[in-house]
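fyi for ur records
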Amino acid sequence: MAEEKINDVKKEEPVNVDIKTEAKDNSIHEVKKEHVQVHEHIEKPDESELIEQRTKKLKEIVTKRWLWTGAILILALILGVFIRSLPMQDHNPGVPGNQPGLWDVAENDWTLGPDLDPWVFYRTAKTAIIEGKIPDMDNMRNVPIGFDNSIELQMVPQMIIYTYKFINIFGDYSPMFAAIIMPVLFFALTIIAFFLFVREIFVKEDEKSKTKANIISLIATFFMIVIPVFLSRTIAGIPEKESIAFFFMFIAFFFFLKAWKTKSPKMYILLSVLAGVSAAVMNLAWGGALYIYVSIAGATLIAFLLNKVKERESYIFVIWMVTALIVLNVFTNRYTLTAFFTGSSTIVVTLVLAILIVNFILNKTKVSDKLSKKFKLPSNIISIIVAIIVLLIGLTIVSGPFAIFDKFNSVYEMMFKVIEGRWIITVAENRQPFYNEWASSFGPYIQQLPNLPVMFWLFFAGSVFLLFKTLKDNIKKWDAIVLTILYVLFFLGLVFSRYAPSHILNGSNFISRFVYIGGALLLILGFLYYYMIYQKRNHHGFEKIDYNVIFLLVLFVICLFTARSAIRLVMVLGPISTIMVAYLIVGSIDAFRKSRDETIKIIIGAFMVLILILSVFTFYTYYNTVKNQAYSFIPGPYNFQWQKAMKWVRDETPKESVFAHWWDYGYWVQSIGERATITDGGNAAVYWNYLSGRHVLTGDNQKDSLEFLYNHDVNYLLIDSTDIGKYGAFSSIGSDINYDRYSWIGSFLLDETQIQETKDQTLLVFTGGIALDEDTMIEQDGKEIILPSGKTGVGAMILPVENDNGTEKFVQPIVVMQYNGVIHRIPMRYLSIDGEFVDFETGIEGAMMVFPRLISDGQSVSQNKAGAAIFVSPRILRGFLGQKYLLDDPFDKFPNFQVAHNQPSLVVENLRQQGMVLPDIVHFNGIQGPIKIWSVEYTGEEEERYDYIDTDHSKYINWTL
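which gave:
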């Protein structure tokens, strides 16, 4: 019976045999050993066949681009969402319960991150959720006139509202939680949009280009996720304009580039409309929509010069622009058609539109051919010349005869002119950065090469490589080399013409301007020269350059230009720079693979390895950096102090109360404290900042302070400890034309190594360093000496202490000043120490304010009661902040301002709870002070004054504010 079974086995195919099943039959044990071995041999697959099968399956997976591309893109999404949501994760590990980093300690609930502007978007969205719509007027702002919401960009509040509705499908969530998570959700969408945009740049019809485009897009996307400069506006808890805007910018680019490639009229019309809607929505979210308008218009202008714009492309551009304008004018009153078409940043859009319309008319009427023959110029050049003439006439009619000069002047000022105006220069993000400032955003740095920001030079090399390869593939190699060299000179001129303030290239002198403009002119003239030569030779190499590459290079140059023009715009260069790096990585690998010459292959291989090492190093460093930054991007002790102060405001002040303060805190008071304010971060009435600075914060008399506050219905005045550091800003803004209030406050620390012991005294020496704020006359050796402001240094203060039978007695303090190398020791009239204010009746009319310095030693904190000091100059002492905030009104000049609440800093509050006796102001890693809130009591003699509520400063002051 066993023999019959074996014979049956031999007749069957090996794949149908189951040894384990047969082995269950006891009779199988009778089969000879060699028969079993034969049977097993039949069952076992051939090893080479197995490898071949696996290789085939792997190839099938690899060839399915959508599978591996989608899988890696999902990983990118997970990474991006993980990093951006880190502030929402538990920040008290090991402690029972979950307390996210974004937490309000006063309310024990979610809160936004440590920023100012997002609060107005949150409050607007919350109001709309409660009331059903965004109100036409916001009466919490700019009391007593309010703020017209129709001229504000309301896309961020709208997106918070949509997020709120969406997340509440899955549970019960508050408007605050919606505002917190909205940037994370939009960053996930931004990742997808960015990937699609980058892929569309490089993708073509052939299979190989699709794979290559996917790889470049994925690499760029991963770098975009971790580049630090892009983090702060796309993170949980910061519902800022940019968190929305970047998604719509990238998706607008994608739709437009897709439309440009599409042949079907229905599809390119649809895609053009989508691109227009996306551009408009970005414009409704953020004023940075110029990146869309100028990039598309600039690339289209170049494409027109290269004869790449035909009737279909003209339709795409016009449909895109018209759609954007319609959407903008439907949803906001902020932009008018006249302002759009004549604006300095959008004039290039108007120019391209005019060119396309003129070109269409000239071609349809056959006039173009006649003019081309007459002037012996290409038809596209004829269209450009005619369009420029038409545009100049139109600008002259609409905006006056000097309009075109104003446009050129605006661009020139953006490039070179240092920002002017006392208010605008205090807003740090508006100033032009020097090279080292913004290049440092594109590190990391290698220890051995501390002046070499790796990412910066990678994206520079990537842009050079992209341009050279594009040119080399379409024109003669030597011509491509020359034009690439001109581009390198242009890039270096643009970047390094504003190198450092003390450098020969300081951005504003003649040589800087020559380098900047000269590099740009060389590049433009170089391209025009070769373009004309190729036209004469009837060589169409330039016409073959891909529009997508033109677009990317134009966008990249615009990002470089704006990054150099304003430090806040460096972040836009961040994601665009990653495209160049990704192209460099893939391009170097591709060049190595294609190289046939062994020597060249070795050189390219070494270059490729270097790029890969630097790229991996950069990505790894960036990942660790942004992970740590994101986790720490949460409210800290300073924010906790504000949370507690605003809880008091909500609970203890009438709801109709109005607050005055420096403009920085307006959105916090409105949104966290839920009270109206005079000024805020919108700065709709910059003139009021001048009035606040002059009549309140540096005000030298109560009458003017009360009258200004009365006209704005103010009930409470708030001063924050950071106003000490901002004194220079608001005293400059609040000064007259001669800067009569301009001053600054610096801290001086006790230098124990310089303590001097004499027979009767101990001299405590406090060292620091600030400039004197006003001309000061002193008498020395019977002579009057004038110490000029700005040129005289205040280097130290000395506090003599006498020991009177075991009791310390403080003697008149001395301020040490130096002018022209001569040191002057000058007595000061006033001393504030340990709760006492002493008047010595002689000396300069300034005060030495002495306060404790806290010293941390491991787990314990001790204090030196006389460890720090402030030089309260005579100018500061005359003002409100000096008298009321620093010194508690020793002269009683502001009796109608009564302290309603004093919210100590967190460190002072905690140490007081532990039994340590401390004053309001201490020094601990800088000055730590309270948030003081005064109630305002009017005398009844205040008068209504229109000049205090007018918003047009030009009627009252004759200098640049």
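The CA atoms of residues 75 and 435 lie 35 Å apart. thats all i got for now
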